[in-house]
Amino acid sequence: MCLAIPAKVIRVNGSNALVLIEDTEYNASLLLLEDVKEGDYVMLHAGFAIQKVDEEEAKETMRLLNEVASYNPESGNEVH
Which of 19, 40, 50, 74 is the most buried (most CB within 10 A)? Predict the structure, then answer.
C-alpha cells in the first residue's frame, strides 16, 4: 500500500521545494504540479508533490494518519 503525506511548502527553488511534515523538513520535487508557492500544502509521495490540498484537509489527514499509526490491537483501543 502506498500513502501520500500532507506537507507544508516552506521554500520553493525552481522545481524543488523544502517541505515540512510535522517537525521534519524534506526535499520534494514539484515537477508534477504547477503554481506551488510557499505556504501551500501538498500531498507528498515518494519525494514528489502530487496534489495541492487546503490547510484544513492537510491537518485532518495528518490527524487520521497519526491515529492509525498509534493503533495498538493488544491494548483494546479501536480506531474510530
Answer: 19
User: Domain ranges in the chain?
Assistant: 5-71
Whether residue 69 has pLDDT greater than 90: no
Helix (H, G, I), strand (E, B) or coil at 45: strand
CA 17 – CA 37 distance, rounded (Å): 9
Residue 28 dihedral angles phi and psi, to the nearest 5°: -135, 145
Fold for the domain defined by 5-71: SH3 type barrels. (2.30.30)
Give the pTM.
Answer: 0.84
Q: How confident is the model at residue 26 (pLDDT cuts 50, 70, 90)?
A: very high
Question: Where does residue 79 rank: exposed (0-12), middle (13-18), buried (19+ CB within 10 A)?
Answer: exposed
